[in-house]
Specification:
Chorismate synthase, AroC fold; 4-stranded antiparallel β-sheet; 5-stranded antiparallel β-sheet; about 325 residues; 8 helices; homotetramer; globular; alpha+beta
Chain lengths: ~325, ~325, ~325, ~325
């Protein structure tokens, strides 16, 4: 199921080492100014290159092939393509027999019985998040005046990010982290009970981001230690602002107009330079191996823009449902 | 959006103090033995009555009105109704002006502008989870040989549940807790990348359960503190069993055949016997109030069966997609 | 798949001789005045009783059990139930072996392998159209200023309806007919290319009405005999009115503001008082039989209100997508 | 809404004179042999070139960019792209003011307020049916042993096709026609009451094909003239074959195993070499004009393969729902 969304609908495709990766955004209003440059700004935030991320130069140039005319969206589906390039010809087929711990090698094989494109993770690759960031860049244009920001709270349990990364590189191991996302200037009233509560839709798309294994809103797991009288947020203004924000801006699945606050955990990159033990499922023998080649020490560093994109996509859809975004913008 | 599911589809309706609450299950295979008694077993687990839960005697008798013939499902939509009864006639309209902290009073008003049925939480009431438990009871019949169990890990930060409840009652406050759900005998290969990953679907429905504010799979937030080499689960058997289960039985969004393990946080019941401060949004004045009447000290106590139901509903759908559940069972 | 609609969503259930038939309407805006009386007006138009329709007194009293509070819709799902009553205890199980020509006896058996509720047609019964008419009655309240009217063009090939019915009764046979539906005061711009063209959505729901076997828009099949220059409708006013309306008010799947015009064919009632030959599929022997009991001579007579309802349901959804219907009405 | 399908899902995009047209097929089983050559066979049937079709040489070479690995489908979404080429730079913007009768110029302008890509019909162009034929070519590989064939019954009311075309060319006008589609070797039991009846799903996608204005199953509109005893198809074999096939192979929305038979009307091509009158909606003056350039005399000639594709797409989805098509094929 590679589609998501009710009114702002995205549909993605592609594999890490295939020909192209892409995304189709259907239901986007007509009349939004849009060029490749608008996308590049966001896509660059996702790029590797920083310390702790893979040095691979990805081919991240977006190519808008439909749905935009005279630099404005038309109301027809917008498709954005990315060529795959710079892929190494190393032999990934070994991972069919010796599935890498933490990767999807084993589960993909169970599901697709050897037909999956296993090169570089195939359709399970983090490269597919290009599609999310592209759709998110467009969604961000719609959700005015909402602003979405993400920051890294900790890496490997350490709030000093750089120190944590240096540490991991020194240890030749990978690390994960915790990312927070905050949306400000939120409208009240978003979310569609019972099943399309704001948390439900956000959780749906956020858990589709590779490596996310936990999600909490507001006080999250801390709420389990509080009294109700502590955890409840008291209203202090007539437009619903509260003194605390343990609810993360959502009550009963509906936004309250307070900041939307959520945190996710990104697991450590599955590929690590440490020697690992795993099973050769064909021979039944335990084996040791080291994942060779380039890989991110900490994939969490690249998650903030992906997380923001996921949030923007959901908010765009919900604001469209609330008729806070027009079907067609005014022509200038 | 009160529908959920692709092949095993549920559609729910009702308000706390309305005439009836109910659920329609569409897409359920034909040929499953089903009577009201099958449902009652599960529904009873959700009932109040235990210490820490509301003494209100709910009218929880299910009434199957369609989709079952000669005690077997027919393949047509199954509708199960519950009469509402024993509702007190107290005045809930005051909460339009003085929204209760933690409740959906304010957000519902923002969204539905006064048309919402505000009595007893209306469509936001926990009573609606009757629908989930009903659908879950049916789903559990389909997902053989999978077994789902939930347990309460802690209440108010205390692993001694009874002590925690007694404490809260003594303090005249409410508490939350952490619930774990485990599914065993799991098939490998469930989950539909990119957006219908197993975590995504589970998260979608789980966050629709009132009072859930966080969810993690396997090691969850703890993974942020581990090295990759620690967090990775090493395969030890040819059918994919791993030595650890930090992934919670899911890699790349697809089940591995290891136990599915997840935890949720249930926030403290919003209604508490403590005096609370909130705003009269009409007059703009701060006011103090105490929520009167019956309410659960700890709603988390009633969540396990709801959580299991949510998991069962998703697994039934995914197993149907994998053709592991027939469209029509063999006639006996 | 008993759900239909994107924003105005209906979900129906029930069998002819089961306990209840019903419908849930999800996504209906809050603030619409609604009582059972509003529904009865439309439901009465569907009632039997006229010459040529079955004399069975159906239990057609609607019971709104959710989604309405103080006589206004709340924004939560609206469920309307109908008790089944006055069902005869005749033996329908014989039709498992001797499937009635024209009925769904054989196909239901092929699909549901004997688990289907075969009494009175079960879930295939025309009684299920109560659900459509109910949803349609609500939809009609939303689509202001659009007016929908249906009329019977011919019965048994005869534009004199009464004569045709009398003829059929005299011949102890059943007849079908052609029904036209026209929607006036149409907004331009409805329809969502490529797949949710106005014709596509209308056709989807209209072919779900039992006994409909053909549908055409505007000139329909006659267009095959015209030159392009004849068939094209020439614009004569700046708001898009055309001199002819061979397109039936839709171009490129999008409404033009001209009247929406469509015609359907309703096949003759499958139950007829004529002796029929069919096969005993168990013994393999040809057999003759006469369908006993009450049945409509001409089910087409009851279709107009059902057809209008189907059209209203689609237009409500499309007008909601165009933001021509508010999510919440103004409070009076 | 450019998506269609429950399990076999297609998503299309592109404009006539844009950069690329394409389709993503999601949910296709893994393990189907697939190369561009497989697609070309079907795409060639849609090509122009025959007398009565436009001489434009379209760039109809498919490019599979995802979802296929080692010449087999992988289970990941399959995207197929087509470059647009050979587009003339004529000025289409005049049609914003002077909408061509029969075309979507006026309705697109009403809906998209000038942002639509109006060149060559944009997203409304018949070129988009490349996407349908591509998806249909894949669907046909899945629905074994079903065979689908289409034929042209009449053009311009004349069963002599060539004569009709010659006539139209001589008259410098365009003509429409009636196309029949038959699927043989049909399984019984396809179709999902109430809303996803076989007719409903077929009608949904068929009316999305440009220029289709009518659809009938089996006897279709003729049924309105028959007695019930004539129209009913009598069973003559134990596996459900009937002596006549007035139902077109569908009863109660479910296939009976008899041939699926349907007919559509294709309206005459809107572009005609005849002088036409229309309104300049800006100046309010009537004007005469002739559509210049290349256009099909009879678009109906190109419809058969598109119609077959639409039928194949629906049958693939329904057969997947019946578990008659595996999720993953056996590896050879």
């Amino acid at each position: 199921m590679n589609n998501f969304g009710r009114l702002f609908r995205i549909s993605l495709f592609g594999e890490s080492h295939g020909i192209q990766v892409g995304v189709t955004i259907d239901g986007c209003p007509a009349g939004i100014p849009l060029t490749e440059d608008d996308l590049i700004k966001e896509l660059d935030r996702r790029r590797s290159g920083a310390k702790g991320t893979t040095p691979r130069k990805e081919s991240d140039m977006p190519n808008i092939v439909s749905g935009v005319f005279n630099n404005y969206t038309t109301g027809a589906p917008i498709t954005v393509l990315f060529e795959n390039a710079n892929t190494r010809s190393k032999d990934y087929s070994q991972f069919l027999d010796i599935p890498r711990p933490g990767h999807a090698d084993f589960t993909a094989q169970q599901k697709f019985k050897g037909f999956q494109d296993y090169r570089g993770g195939g359709h399970f690759s983090g490269r597919i998040t290009l599609a999310l960031v592209t759709a998110g860049a467009i969604a961000k244009k719609l959700i005015h005046p909402v602003e979405i920001k993400s920051d890294i709270l900790e890496i490997g349990g350490n709030p000093n990010i750089q120190e944590a990364i240096d540490n991991a590189i020194r240890n030749k191991d990978s690390v994960g982290g915790i990312i927070r996302c905050i949306a400000t200037n939120m409208p009240a009233g978003l979310g569609e009970p019972f099943f399309d509560k704001t948390e439900s839709l956000l959780a749906h798309i956020i858990f589709a981001i590779p490596a996310i294994k936990g999600l909490e809103f507001g006080a999250g797991f801390e709420a389990a230690k509080m009294w109700g009288s502590e955890n409840n947020d008291n209203y202090i203004t007539a437009d619903g602002k509260t003194d605390t924000n343990n609810a993360g801006g959502i009550n009963g699945g509906i936004t309250s107009g307070n900041d939307l606050v959520l945190k996710v955990v990104v697991k450590p990159t599955s590929s690590t330079s440490q020697k690992q033990r795993t099973l050769n499922v064909k021979t039944g023998e335990m084996t040791e191996f080291i994942v060779e080649g380039r890989h991110d020490t900490c994939i969490a560093l690249r998650v903030p823009v992906v997380l923001e994109s996921a949030v923007a996509i959901v908010l765009a859809d919900l604001m469209m449902q609330e008729q806070q975004i027009p079907k067609v913008y005014e022509k200038k």
